[in-house]
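SAMPLE LOG
Freezer: B-3
Tube label: C17
Construct: single chain, 295 aa
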Amino acid sequence: MGIIDFHTHAFPDKVAARAIPALEREAGIKAVLDGTLSALLGSMDAAGIERSLVMSIATRPEQFDSIMAWSRAIASERIVPLPSIHPADPLARERAAAVAAAGFKGVKLHPFYQDFSLDDPAALPLMEALAAHGLFCVCHTGFDIAFPRVRRCDPAMVAALAARVPGLVFVATHLGGWYDWEEVERHLLGTPVYMDISFTLGHLAERNVARMLRAHPADYLLFGTDSPWQDQRVACEGVRALGLGKSLEERLFHANAARLLGDAGAGQQSFPAERRGTPGGSGAGGAPVSGSGMP
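STRUCTURE (predicted):
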């Protein structure tokens, strides 16, 4: 079974030529790829990646239609697009229904680029609508490399949201909270909240990455790279070097993502009985038009 990268970004070619240099300046880092879909597919081939989820971010409510059009255009056996809905969109509930009706599996949100906080009551209708329509939510969590370190989507907020909207399948990116990993251990580790590992290797010591992955329920872990900001091949090699064991590695690389995407034969998720319950206890651009595509 091939690897599924649950967290990548790409842009239409003309947009990528403008967006990537601008994002590099904002973040002070260099992209590995040029941000085009063709570059992503070439990277996937080099890394042995079967499918990539391509995230868009609506930095304004009116970007919804263009993002949906882009998402429809790029969908294929290897590319799984995630549209985006702005939480301030007065039609947010209707947008969620439209995303589900179009056959997409989830959406991407980014509190920094969309200027909201996870604990903002105004964002709750969108979260409830996503849950009602069976859409998972991949959301940037923790701090962001291009912004001041303010708390907009920290692990405590993720735990509170999971308790408030129990039907929401929430994917906390960057191992639950980029550069806020002590709070991840306090609030998320060991709870039924999905976490991807994008943009974590190289920023958190390998021994701590391995320890946290082993301490979290194996069915709630996802491989991600945040390409073009991390090299997919290097990220795959980094995971293999952690020595997680065949079973955990297979779930991380493929099985959990396949289940969320509804693959036939992927099986049902199970959560250890002793860890069920309310999350929160301690454990052992915008896309095609103008926006981030950053962690």
